[in-house]
Amino acid sequence: MSIDIQSAQKQFEAHFGFAPTVIARAPGRVNIIGEHTDYNHGFVLPMAIERETVVLARPRQDGVLNAYAANFDKSAQARLMTWDKSAQNGWIDYVVGVAFELSKMQRPLCGADLMIIGDVPVGSGLSSSASLEMATLVLFEQMGGFAVEGPEGPLLGKRVENLFIGVNSGIMDQFIVRMGKAGHALFLDCRSHEYELVPVAFESARFVIANTGVTRGLSASKYNERVAECAEAVTSLAAATGRKGSHLRDFTEGDLESAACLMTDVAYRRARHVITEDLRTKAACEAMRAGNAVQLGALMTASDISLRDDYEVTCPELDAMTSIARALPGCYGARMTGAGFGGCAVSLVDVGATDAFVRELLARYREATGLPGEVIVSAPAEGAGLAS
């Protein structure tokens, strides 16, 4: 747990004049490997991180959500059953969106005085929005005396993003934030939503997440481009193989080579990344189970090179961060993580070398880019739940 709950309680009391009765929390996440595979119905391997969003609340019976965002020192109100979005305070829309989806499921709802506080960096690709959604879901479950079981919780969060907020996101973020387990990564089939908690078996290595400080301003338009390019590749693959696959998940490297003459160079490279990334993600699970940090690091590096050269979703700052990381002693491998065009990189680093690695990474990154960077060293954390 990264937020001091006692301090948060005191801040709640100072703002509202009384103590909270429910405290819910949810972590951020980093994707270890399996990038841009989710919307291609492929595989991902994220883990929850030791940064979190905490929502403290006291129920109220008038249907009002009286909310305070401590990080922004902003207040906003919304009313249940009207489902209006805020013109000035978009952060409360995630709370309202969760309530809206629960209302459609006919779950009992009540208003609340609530405070949101967290240390998941916003806009860095570490899923601050999914963290808020899943913490809010835990809050409403506790206040209403019900439980949303299994994958339905993450799917609810995806509907909030897609239908209420209007962001065309996949299922991975909400899934790991809700279903994660300490000491484990989560291998997720983005088509069937079947998942497996994979023990992170090596004790001699840690994940180091490095924020470039570059916001992902271009990611929305580029994301849509990549979706269209993948669809173009699927059309060519289906024509070449005579099969009716709907997504790149349905085709192999052999299929890709047989269809190469029917595809543009761009579509070919996009498909090559996705098809090989699915293979790398499966192999990464085996490396984790075996405690083989060297193999996992090599797979992470291969993923990064593919994302840079075939999928073209890095940026100069990400390339600087990963290349510096891989050159430092104790680094098994490094890759960009998230949508790309900014955000974060993740490295797998020997425990004994971690402190020196962090110092050198930040110093060399600042020298190369003029940006300070930020580092989070994290073991796989627990998914959403009540704060203890």
Question: Can you give a write-up of this model?
Answer:
A hairpin with a 6-residue loop joins strand 9 (about 330-335) and strand 10. The protein contains eleven helices and twelve strands. Strands 1, 2, 3, 4, 5, 6, 7 and 12 form an eight-stranded mixed sheet that branches. The protein has a four-stranded antiparallel sheet with strand order 9-10-8-11. The mean pLDDT is about 95. It is of the alpha+beta class and about 400 residues long. The chain has helices spanning about 5-15, 90-105, 130-145, 150-165, 170-180, 220-240, 255-260, 265-290, 295-310, 315-325, 355-370; strands at about 20-35, 45-60, 65-70, 75-80, 110-120, 185-190, 195-200, 205-210, 330-335, 345-350, 375-380, 385. It starts with a helix and ends with a strand.
